[in-house]
Design goal:
Length: 207
Amino acid sequence: MSQVHVSQHPLVAHKLTVLRDEQTDHRSFRELMRELALLLVYEATQDVRLNPRQVKTPMGYAQGSKLVDAIGLVPVLRAGLGMVEGALMLLPSVQVWHIGLYRDEHTLRPVQYYNRLPDAPTVEVCLILDPMLATGGSAVATVDILKKWGVPRIKYVGLIAAPEGVKRLSEAHPDVPIHIAAIDERLNEVGFIVPGLGDAGDRQFGT
């Protein structure tokens, strides 16, 4: 699937391994989430549009570039919150909106409980931040919301995906690139990624 991009960066592989470790404490987990988000957002924004810009240096004038695309971050509550700070370190001027979804434990289907998007989109690119692409239900629902809102370009940025989630998101929205650190083996009977890292929300917030 051409829209699936699994990072090959050595730092991503190293930090993800530490993140998975059940001995990693909550504080370290949050720091690693931030660092991984920065690295993955860096990779996901390689095709944003630029305009030429000239600046004056102490030694003369230099031809450079200025970012054209307005970018929005959409962390999926609550686990996606851990990725926002890293993205903001790289893109400090972006807009941030939140979409709240939880997975019904019986049906494994997403249920929306929060959405404060403006009436009309004010960006050209939205990056969905959600660390775990498990069943794919929340990711598909979030893309549905953003497309209905009218965003021209949408990308999914996560940490770990199950093959089932990748397949579901890719089939529902083949125009949405997926940027992740790893694709794991499978989902278990209750919809958790194996081997995964457990519940990303619980581990970062200590709940």
